[in-house]
Amino acid sequence: RSVMISSQFGGSSCSGELTEDRPCYPSKLCQLPPVDCRGDFKCDNGRCINATLTCNRQNDCGDNSDERDCG
What we know:
Layout: E1 41-42, E2 48-49
Antiparallel strand pairs: 1-2
GO biological process, one term: complement activation
Protein name: Complement component 6
GO cellular component, one term: membrane attack complex
């Protein structure tokens, strides 16, 4: 047994976009718990990296905060 014509679209071929993009505006902001980096370096974006990765001329944080104030 095989399907010759799909009944999903009334037997017509599906044409056009299969996805739709639209903006989503949440009704309230998410409250994220504070991050404890313990002995690591805490980036301005909240990410934790090993303290030895600071001031190595590489943007390990992704926001370059690990390369600021390097004397």
